C-alpha cells in the first residue's frame, strides 16, 4: 500500500429494481463476515437515513451515505479510501434499480471500479432471471459484474434452472430460499428505525447468517478480490475555512420523532467549531442552552399527540424562536414548526406554530428527489422524501432547484431566524453556507 492507494475486498450490491432484497442481503453479509472476525464497512448509495441504521447494527460499524451528486466525487472517494485502510471488506448497497437515477448505482460502481453483484427476486421465473441478469451485465462495458444473487429461490431445482441458463462469464453467486424470518420490519417511509426494533433486528440477523450458511452455493461467502481505492488529490472534506462556529452551541432534536441525521453533518458542525448537544422534544421539559437549533426529519406524525402535550418544551422553543436565533427545520422538523399536524389516522394536533400552515399525512403518495436549496447564504445540496403535504403556508423565501427538472422544487420558508423546508440538507456540499446558516443574520 502506497500513501495514496489502499486495497480492500469490495462488493457493490445492486438490483434490477427496488424491493429485491438488497438491504436484507447486505445486512446478512455484513453480519456473516463480522462474525468471522472481519471489519466490515458498509456504505449506502443515495440520501437514505433508514437503511444505514440497519446496516450499522448488522456490521457494528458506522455506515456512510455515498452520492456523487449530493456529496461530490472527491467526498465519496475519500470515504471509500479511508474505509479501505481499516476494513477487511467494503460493501456498498445500491439504490433503486441498477441504472436508475443520475448518477445511478452503476455510475458509482463504475467510478470506483467496485464489482457489482446483481440481487434479484426470482420468485415466479427461472431462465428469465438469467436473461434479465445477462442484460444488466451487458448494458454497460464500464461496470464490472461479479455475478447473480438469486433471492427467494423456491428449491434447488429452481436454482439449477437459473444457474444453467447463465452465460459462462456471469457467475451464479448464491441462491437464497424464501424465509420470512429474515424480512426486515417496514412502515410508510421505508424500514423501521433500528433504535425502535433492535432486538427484532438481532433475531433477523441471526436468521440471516443461518440463511446464508445453509445454501449449497458458497461463492458469495468468500471475500471478493481486493479493489484499489485512491485518496483524492484535493480533499473537499478538509477545506480550510477556519472554525466560524467556534464558541457556538447547536442543540439538535433527537428521539423517536426526530432522528434523520447524517453522521457526516455532525462531523461538519464539529469541523466548523460548533459544540453539539442533543435534546428530546418528546421527553425533555427543558431546552438546553444553545445559540442555534436543528430540528431534523423523522416521524413526528407517529408521536404528534405527545409532542403537542409537552407544553413546557413547546413554550421554550417558541421563546427561542422569538429571540430571532437560527433554527433549521427539515421535513418532519418543519411539520413540527407548523400550526397543526394531522396524522395517518386523521387526528389533528396543535404544533409549535412558528410558521403559518397545516401539515397532513397522505398515505402512500409523496415526493422525493435530489434538489439544491438556493439560500441567501449559498447553495446547499440535499434531497426530499416525504408522505405529507403542507397547506396555507406563507410565501416562500425560494424554492429548491431540482436536479434534472425545470419545475420549482420544495418551498423554503424563512421567518425570523427560522429556515424551514421539506429538504434534508447535506452540509458537506457547502461548508461556508452551512456555517452562515447556523450563525444567523
Describe this structure in words.
This protein has 441 residues and is of the alpha/beta class. The chain folds into 2 domains: 5-230, P-loop containing nucleotide triphosphate hydrolases (Rossmann fold, 3-Layer(aba) Sandwich), CATH 3.40.50; 249-439, Class I glutamine amidotransferase (GATase) domain (Rossmann fold, 3-Layer(aba) Sandwich), CATH 3.40.50.880. It is built from 13 helices and 26 strands. Strands 13-11-14-16-25-24-23-20-21-26 form a 10-stranded mixed β-sheet. Strands 1, 2, 3, 4, 5, 6, 7 and 10 form an 8-stranded mixed β-sheet that branches. A hairpin with a 5-residue loop joins strand 23 and strand 24 (408-415). The longest helix is centred in the middle third of the chain and has 16 residues, at 198-213. Residues 187-191 have low confidence and may be disordered.
Amino acid at each position: 500500500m502506497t500513501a495514496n492507494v489502499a486495497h480492500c475486498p469490495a462488493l457493490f450490491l445492486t438490483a434490477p429494481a427496488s424491493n429485491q432484497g438488497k438491504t436484507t442481503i447486505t445486512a446478512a453479509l455484513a453480519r456473516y463476515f463480522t462474525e468471522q472476525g472481519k471489519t466490515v464497512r458498509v456504505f449506502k448509495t443515495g440520501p437514505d437515513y433508514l437503511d444505514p441504521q440497519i446496516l450499522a447494527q448488522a456490521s457494528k460499524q458506522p455506515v456512510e451515505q455515498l452520492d456523487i451528486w449530493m456529496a461530490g466525487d472527491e467526498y465519496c472517494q475519500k470515504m471509500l479510501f479511508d474505509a479501505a485502510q481499516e476494513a477487511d471488506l467494503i460493501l456498498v448497497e445500491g439504490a433503486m434499480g441498477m441504472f436508475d437515477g443520475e448518477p445511478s448505482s452503476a455510475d458509482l460502481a463504475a467510478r470506483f471500479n467496485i464489482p457489482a453483484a446483481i440481487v434479484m427476486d426470482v420468485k415466479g421465473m427461472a431462465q428469465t432471471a438469467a436473461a434479465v441478469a445477462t442484460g444488466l451485465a451487458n448494458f454497460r462495458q464500464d461496470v464490472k459484474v461479479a455475478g447473480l444473487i438469486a433471492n427467494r429461490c423456491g428449491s434447488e431445482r429452481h436454482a439449477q434452472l437459473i444457474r444453467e441458463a447463465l452465460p459462462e462469464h456471469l457467475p451464479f453467486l448464491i441462491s437464497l430460499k424464501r424465509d420470512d424470518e429474515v424480512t426486515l420490519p417496514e412502515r410508510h417511509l421505508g424500514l423501521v428505525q433500528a433504535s425502535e426494533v433492535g432486538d427484532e433486528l438481532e433475531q433477523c440477523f441471526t436468521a440471516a447468517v443461518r440463511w446464508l450458511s445453509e445454501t449449497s452455493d458458497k461463492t458469495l461467502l468468500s471475500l471478493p478480490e481486493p479493489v484499489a481505492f485512491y485518496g483524492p488529490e484535493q480533499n473537499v472534506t478538509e477545506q480550510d475555512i477556519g472554525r466560524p462556529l467556534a464558541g457556538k452551541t447547536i442543540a439538535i432534536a433527537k428521539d423517536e420523532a426526530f432522528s434523520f441525521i447524517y453522521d457526516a453533518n455532525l462531523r461538519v458542525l464539529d469541523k466548523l467549531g460548533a459544540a453539539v448537544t442533543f435534546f428530546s422534544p418528546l421527553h425533555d421539559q427543558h431546552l438546553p442552552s444553545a445559540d442555534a437549533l436543528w430540528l431534523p426529519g423523522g416521524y413526528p406524525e407517529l408521536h404528534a399527540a405527545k409532542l403537542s402535550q409537552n407544553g413546557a418544551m413547546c413554550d421554550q422553543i417558541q421563546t427561542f424562536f422569538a429571540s430571532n436565533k437560527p433554527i433549521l427545520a427539515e421535513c418532519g422538523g418543519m411539520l413540527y414548526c407548523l400550526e397543526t399536524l394531522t396524522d395517518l389516522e386523521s387526528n389533528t394536533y396543535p404544533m409549535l406554530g412558528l410558521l403559518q400552515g397545516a401539515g397532513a399525512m397522505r398515505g402512500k403518495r409523496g415526493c422525493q428527489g435530489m434538489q439544491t436549496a438556493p439560500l441567501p447564504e449559498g447553495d446547499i445540496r440535499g434531497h426530499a422524501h416525504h408522505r405529507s403535504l403542507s397547506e396555507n403556508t406563507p410565501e416562500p423565501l425560494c424554492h429548491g432547484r431540482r436536479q434534472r427538472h425545470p419545475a420549482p422544487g420544495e418551498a423554503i420558508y424563512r421567518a425570523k431566524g427560522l429556515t424551514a423546508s421539506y429538504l434534508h440538507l447535506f452540509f458537506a456540499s457547502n461548508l461556508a453556507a452551512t456555517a452562515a446558516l447556523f450563525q444567523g443574520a
